[in-house]
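Propose amino acids for all 262 sites.
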């Protein structure tokens, strides 16, 4: 685990992270990306995504807002990223809630070489055929152990599965890491799942050859920021504001020492 070194390289190189994400969290993920030290670009027009992704260090596809033009843009960007060697993160928001969301996530997995799948237990379980309940974009329940779910998803889909929850689990189908950093207040505001996908893209941009470690380090950094933001928060509102400050204040020299990873 070299989260501190990765964060320092990220802040030094300031990689461009191309995100095709939904309007609701676009501002949230852009601000989080900037606070961490990377540079966000939110481009979703089919006319420019292929050109834009070739300038990026990573591509994050977030299916939170779907329509045929957005799906087309995601597929165009994903294929162009694969051609250029740019790693792809997929956030299958609400997969399992509607047929359209589930089929779109499956289509991206079929047509794009995804490096990291970052989702909650219900979303990931849906994509590997495990019984789950997803209500709206929230995971209500998924049977079994989340670590085993991450391992199965990594093995069956041929990628790194990053399953977030009270304890996060990241697996490439062989090795599995459990990350216990974070705070319950992260679940009280919208957009934190999408932010964790953006963070994954940031760390993947400087760790293209280490996707398992990049995904875990991103969740360590986000979890530690959540812990720091919660320390002085009075509730969800003040926590939300403090989270950006905490991301900006992350210390690369002490980050590894605070990692709660098994």
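Proposal:
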């Amino acid at each position: 685990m070299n989260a501190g070194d990765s964060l320092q390289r990220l802040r030094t190189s300031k990689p461009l992270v191309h995100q095709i994400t939904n309007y609701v969290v676009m501002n949230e993920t852009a601000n989080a990306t900037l606070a961490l030290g990377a540079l966000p670009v939110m481009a979703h027009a089919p006319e420019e995504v292929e050109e834009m992704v070739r300038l990026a260090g990573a591509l994050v596809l977030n299916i939170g807002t779907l329509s045929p033009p957005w799906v087309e843009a995601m597929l165009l960007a994903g294929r162009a990223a694969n051609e250029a060697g740019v790693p792809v993160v997929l956030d299958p928001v609400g997969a399992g809630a509607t047929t359209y969301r589930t089929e779109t996530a499956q289509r991206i997995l079929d047509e794009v070489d995804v490096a990291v799948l970052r989702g909650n237990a219900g979303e990931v379980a849906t994509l590997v055929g495990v019984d789950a309940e997803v209500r709206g974009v929230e995971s209500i329940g998924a049977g079994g152990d989340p670590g085993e779910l991450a391992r199965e998803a990594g093995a069956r889909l041929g990628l790194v599965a990053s399953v977030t929850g009270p304890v996060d689990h990241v697996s490439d189908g062989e090795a599995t890491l459990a990350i216990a950093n974070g705070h319950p207040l992260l679940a009280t505001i919208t957009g934190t799942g999408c932010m964790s996908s953006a963070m994954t893209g940031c760390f993947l941009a400087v760790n293209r050859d280490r996707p398992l470690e990049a995904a875990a380090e991103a969740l360590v950094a986000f979890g530690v920021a959540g812990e720091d933001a919660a320390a002085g928060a009075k509730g969800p509102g003040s926590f939300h504001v403090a989270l950006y400050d905490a991301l900006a204040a992350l210390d690369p020299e002490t980050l590894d020492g605070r990692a709660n990873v098994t």
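Strands lie at 16-20, 39-41, 58-62, 88-91, 116-120, 132-135, 138-142, 160-164, 168-171, 176-179. The longest strand covers residues 16-20.
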